[in-house]
Q: What sequence folds into this?
């Protein structure tokens, strides 16, 4: 497969992987927040009943989980593409 054609062919796969990563990260965040705080719902930045510390801690945890899941899914997709095509996507 050529370079341009390969990139076009992988776009829908990357989009699907990105959506899956977001869904997985959301589930993991909810579970992690429940374990860390004992609360079912994470604070929203606009929730006036929650303090700055709690809101920022939730945002940091959510961002960290999302970044790790996104990196793992991206790396896994690249490894899968290499197995299919014989070379690293790029």
A:
């Amino acid at each position: 497969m050529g370079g341009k054609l390969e990139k076009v062919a992988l776009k829908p796969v990357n989009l699907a992987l990105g959506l899956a990563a977001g869904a997985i990260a959301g589930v993991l965040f909810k579970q992690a927040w429940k374990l860390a705080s004992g609360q079912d719902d994470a604070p929203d930045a606009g929730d006036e009943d929650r303090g700055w510390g709690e809101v920022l801690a939730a945002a940091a945890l959510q961002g960290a989980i999302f970044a790790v899941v996104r990196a793992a899914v991206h790396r896994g997709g690249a490894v899968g593409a290499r197995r299919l095509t014989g070379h690293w996507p790029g």
About this structure: The radius of gyration is 18 Å. Residues 3-37 form the longest helix (35 residues). The chain is about 75% helix and 0% strand.
